[in-house]
Amino acid sequence: xxxxDSIRIKFTFTDFCQLRSCSMESSGVLQAEEEFYxxxxxxxxxxxxxxxxxxxxxxxxxxxxAFLVVGDPFGATTHSDxxxxxxxxxxxxxxxxxxxxxxxxxxCGLQLYNFGETVSIVxxxxxxxxxxxxxxIEKNRQNGMHxxxxxxxxxxxxxxxxxxxxxxxxxxxxxxxxxxAAEQLLAIIQNRRLQGEKPEITENTICVGLARVGAxxxxxxxxxLQQMSTVELGAPLHSLIVTGTMHPLELEMLKLFSVDSxxxxxxxxxxxx
Length: 273
Description:
Helices cover 30% and strands 18% of the residues. By secondary structure, the protein is α/β, with parallel strands linked by helices. A five-stranded mixed β-sheet has the order 4-5-10-8-9. The radius of gyration is 21 Å and the shape is globular.
């Protein structure tokens, strides 16, 4: 948020929905960022951004407030809410755009204009196993479109007991892996078959697993959905792509990252334009 007659600059670094959230303070990253910018940083977690948004804007009438995010500024609806609040308060704002996983997935060779609706795959529990994301993946595939699956992140989550008692005690952070996402998709496929359905997606559907996209140790693996359930991609953050109809050029690119080249040979579930 920008004020033309600012007398100082206040930086707020949002870390919710990101791997950095559990390590910025403990690893010294926050201090390094402060030294880089030459300013004090206020680490804004999910609770602060979503419940204390007004505090981020309260000084914007006398100084510039920079709200720093990892990825694209409008990748979260919460950030749109900040803009609306600023406009309502008469505070001018300026946006500096950035890359995000939404476009960085092009690194695997699949063309961005061939992607359909993006879905989120959430962690299942013993009593809650939603399948709505599977329906969206199927719809995309029926239309020949690829599906980017954003995998669940649990950071600063409270147990039901701590939540009910109002205790600020958080569970250890968890990040869904490509393996876990693939296992849940495979379980849904089996459930649908038991219900007499013929799923659009099978164990042999070509998928792409991505890890730490944009980092020096970025890793990409392509293969069948079954292979994605066992592929080793290392540390988070992970993303999964379920392919639709592929152009020959896209197929050639995916072969560069194949877990097993035979996955692409005589695969009846592989669709090419």
